[in-house]
Amino acid sequence: MDKVLEMVVGMRVMVGMVVMMLVVKGMLVVTDEVLEMVMAAGMRVMVGMVGMILVVKVIVDEVLETVMAAGDIDWVQTEKHVFEQASSSPFLVGLHSCFQTTSRLFLVIEYVNGGDLMFHMQRQRKLPEEHARFYAAEICIALNFLHERGIIYRDLKLDNVLLDADGHIKLTDYGMCKEGLGPGDTTSTFCGTPNYIAPEILRGEEYGQQETPVLRPLHVARARRDGLHSPPGFSVDWWALGVLMFEMMAGRSPFDIITDNPDMNTEDYLFQVILEKPIRIPRFLSVKASHVLKGFLNKDPKERLGCRPQTGFSDIKSHAFFRSIDWDLLGKKQALPPFQPQITDDYGLDNFDTQFTSEPVQLTPDDEDVIKRIDQSEFEGFEYINPLLLSTEESV
């Protein structure tokens, strides 16, 4: 058999999940032999095509048992569903395929080799406004793509914004997404990265889609044609974008707490700051940048930029800060990015923190007792191959 597994470049553990980057060249055919090399499993599934470099995300048995016991198994299928839909957007990391064994679930996803914004921000401290404007605009398109499909992202942060080889963004990690939200539908789940959590979540309020006026089909068609139609609500994502834009342009969080008082270095105090303290915009930012930050970081979701029913996304696109953006070109990835990551080879490992790329891969052995407690019927239909890839392979 040809050498299939070229290199294993690292492992990363977050929220109980093992996220393993398996850099693979050539035709990836998951056979008994290959699986034994990387995760001691045994099943035959075709999950690849020639010339691709992929990432395999592994959800292990201990995690499956924990979430099933908590009655929260829906998030696994939700993440898979969002990955499937994300494949249709140039600004979202898409799904290649899924497969499973009795002890693990595997999601094979795109490998984006330009690093994440956190990595690049740590080296530049802050970005020029024109760079931040470009990335924020592409993020807006990605978020609107999800919102139009009734999905709240809920985990926007520097770490989850990847750059591709050309310098365009791709959002990744859909583990906190909520899907199936229509007009008037809300949720109240407390989740997110602390520094990015919106005030309405901290206040325990319902958030999601606002009720909207009923439009006749002709009016909806005209609104879409004119770029005015957008799903209402989704306020928590636009708040998080405001935090991220502040970090990019100011080089720090809007909620930085500089103190020696241990009582003020707690998560509870951070939440108090988010809820109560006014946000001070640095004076060195332009008037337009200051205005857009105040718009996204409005503590009242009804007044927040992007949250007006029907015209939320249009309000963002027409804001003075984004006036120089050609949204049509941007949506087609035809706008020139302000920065192109340095990539010395296909892997682009120089753009990732060595904390992740230098770790040895260590997978725990199967726990037969845990496996017996997992209801395998919960994962029926999990296996998947992107139909776009199948059509591509058939045409080769």
UniProtKB/TrEMBL annotation:
<keyword id="KW-0067">ATP-binding</keyword>
<keyword id="KW-0808">Transferase</keyword>
<keyword id="KW-0597">Phosphoprotein</keyword>
<dbReference type="InterPro" id="IPR017892">
    <property type="entry name" value="Pkinase_C"/>
</dbReference>
<feature type="transmembrane region" description="Helical">
    <location>
        <begin position="12"/>
        <end position="31"/>
    </location>
</feature>
<keyword id="KW-1133">Transmembrane helix</keyword>
<keyword id="KW-0547">Nucleotide-binding</keyword>
<feature type="transmembrane region" description="Helical">
    <location>
        <begin position="37"/>
        <end position="60"/>
    </location>
</feature>
<dbReference type="InterPro" id="IPR000719">
    <property type="entry name" value="Prot_kinase_dom"/>
</dbReference>
<dbReference type="InterPro" id="IPR008271">
    <property type="entry name" value="Ser/Thr_kinase_AS"/>
</dbReference>
<keyword id="KW-0472">Membrane</keyword>
<dbReference type="Pfam" id="PF00433">
    <property type="entry name" value="Pkinase_C"/>
</dbReference>
<dbReference type="InterPro" id="IPR011009">
    <property type="entry name" value="Kinase-like_dom_sf"/>
</dbReference>
<dbReference type="Pfam" id="PF00069">
    <property type="entry name" value="Pkinase"/>
</dbReference>
<keyword id="KW-0723">Serine/threonine-protein kinase</keyword>
<keyword id="KW-0812">Transmembrane</keyword>
<protein>
    <submittedName>
        <fullName>Protein kinase C zeta type</fullName>
    </submittedName>
</protein>
<dbReference type="GO" id="GO:0004674">
    <property type="term" value="F:protein serine/threonine kinase activity"/>
</dbReference>
<dbReference type="GO" id="GO:0005524">
    <property type="term" value="F:ATP binding"/>
</dbReference>
<keyword id="KW-0418">Kinase</keyword>
<dbReference type="InterPro" id="IPR000961">
    <property type="entry name" value="AGC-kinase_C"/>
</dbReference>
<feature type="domain" description="Protein kinase">
    <location>
        <begin position="17"/>
        <end position="322"/>
    </location>
</feature>
<feature type="domain" description="AGC-kinase C-terminal">
    <location>
        <begin position="323"/>
        <end position="394"/>
    </location>
</feature>
